[in-house]
Specification:
With about 375 residues, this protein is α/β, with parallel strands linked by helices. It folds into two domains: about 1-175 and about 360-375, CDP-glycerol glycerophosphotransferase, N-terminal domain (Rossmann fold), CATH 3.40.50.11820; about 185-355, CDP-glycerol glycerophosphotransferase, C-terminal domain (Rossmann fold), CATH 3.40.50. The protein has 14 helices and 15 strands. The chain has helices spanning about 1-20, 40-50, 80-85, 105-110, 130-140, 145-155, 210-215, 220-230, 265-270, 285-290, 300-305, 330-340, 345-355, 365-375, and strands spanning about 25-30, 55-60, 75, 90-95, 115, 140-145, 165, 185, 190, 230-235, 255-260, 275-280, 295, 325, 340-345. The strands form three sheets. A seven-stranded parallel beta sheet has the order 3-2-1-4-5-6-7, with helices on both faces. Helix 1 (about 1-20) packs parallel to helix 3 (about 80-85). The two termini are about 40 Å apart.
Length: about 375
């Protein structure tokens, strides 16, 4: 049945591609393989939808907001999706081409169209793999946040610098960063570890990821700290850890919530949080942009560098922002110090922010929109 559905989808897209000679008016946007995660794709769609006709966002049926069809949302895998995919002149995605279509169909259906890689965020904490290299070098336009990030991608991947647009990320237009030197009192903490590709299904319960995160969340010292100071911690499971949420049962309480990414608007959660605890997640850059503190809990740094790698030196404190801990005791001690004082970013972090973010003017979507228009005119 799945093969038949793909064949029907492919045939419909090819027919639309053949029938529609003038494709320039159609833009198709996707993010996170069709999961609506309020990422750069959704932010750019909302900006563009009020300025241009025939712009559509592809979303899986189980992620479709109520009444979204009339607003320009298209159900992933539907015939309507196939038709707009074939008719589109511009394909825009945040993670992979699978945001827009089945991976096997992309090389064929992409022909004669412009492709724009919005990116999920800054990928400095991850080494570029083969798939990421292909995405960067195959796209007609690649979005970055600064001259520094453009130089890193050009150096590491050899991407044509003319294809790399310094515009800033679309979702950052929704943020209101703290001012330089402005302090914040910690009342809401977001704990969001990233997924490890090298962890197999059967190994999760024995993985460092599970052992260290569950140990921290079950810590009596952590619970006393949160309860006594009136601080709430939200543990947000990566989408790939969703199936393991049952292993974290029993740790929720008066000061700890456990959620998975599909349950919430992650961007609203970021905005509502005063401090982030993570390991290598690119969400940490959102907090740096917001000038809010980040506590990196890197309990498996050696394994991470061996299996995944990083574009920046994670052992060099001069190139890193935030606070770093390698064990539970250090995490709780650092968190205690941060909670008991008003926190503002140190000068080192502000300089790193200035290097990685060129714009803070809420005009990122406008710049992306203009660059795509220019791309179509070429």
């Amino acid at each position: 049945m799945q093969v038949l559905n793909k064949l029907i989808f492919f045939s419909a897209a090819l027919l639309a591609n053949w029938l529609r000679r003038n494709r320039s008016e159609f833009w198709l946007i996707g993010e996170n393989r069709g999961r609506l995660s309020f990422d750069n794709g959704h932010a750019f769609y909302e900006y563009t939808n009020y300025r241009k006709r025939n712009v559509y966002l592809v979303v899986r049926r189980d992620h479709m907001p109520h009444g979204a069809r009339k607003e320009g949302y298209v159900t992933y895998g539907s015939l309507r999706h196939a038709w707009y995919l074939g008719a589109a002149g511009v394909l825009i995605y945040t993670h992979t081409p699978r945001d827009l279509m089945y991976a096997s169909l992309f090389p064929i259906l992409r022909r004669g169209k412009r492709s724009v890689f919005l990116k999920h965020g800054i990928t400095a904490f991850k080494q570029f793999n083969k798939d990421y290299r292909e995405r960067c070098n195959d796209s007609d336009l690649l979005i970055v946040s600064s001259e520094h990030e453009r130089a890193v991608i050009h150096r590491e991947l050899g991407t044509d610098i003319r294809r790399i647009a310094i515009t800033g990320f679309a979702r950052y237009d929704r943020y209101d960063p703290l001012a330089n030197g402005e302090s914040i009192r910690i009342k809401e903490v977001l704990f969001m570890p990233t997924w490890r590709d090298w962890i197999g299904d059967r190994e999760f319960m024995q993985s460092d990821l599970y052992l260290h995160t569950s140990e921290l969340l079950a810590s009596p010292q952590l619970r006393r700290l949160l309860d006594s100071c009136g601080v709430r911690l939200t543990f947000l499971l990566h989408v790939n850890i969703r199936e393991y949420i049952g292993h974290y049962s029993g740790i929720e309480g008066s000061s700890i919530d456990v959620l998975y990414a599909d349950q919430v608007n992650i961007q609203e959660l970021i905005i509502a949080s005063d401090l982030l605890i993570t390991d290598y997640s690119s969400i940490s850059w959102d907090f740096l942009y917001l000038r809010r503190p980040v506590l990196f809990y890197r309990f498996d740094l050696d394994d991470y560098l061996a299996y995944r790698g990083s574009c920046v030196d994670l052992n060099n404190p001069d190139t890193l922002f935030g606070y770093t801990a390698y064990d539970m005791v250090s995490v709780i001690n650092t968190l205690t110090n941060l909670i008991h004082t008003e926190v503002s970013l140190p000068e080192r972090d502000l300089k790193i922010r200035e290097k990685w973010f060129q714009y803070s003017d809420k005009l990122n979507c406008q710049r992306i929109y203009q660059r795509i228009q220019c791309l179509q005119e070429q």
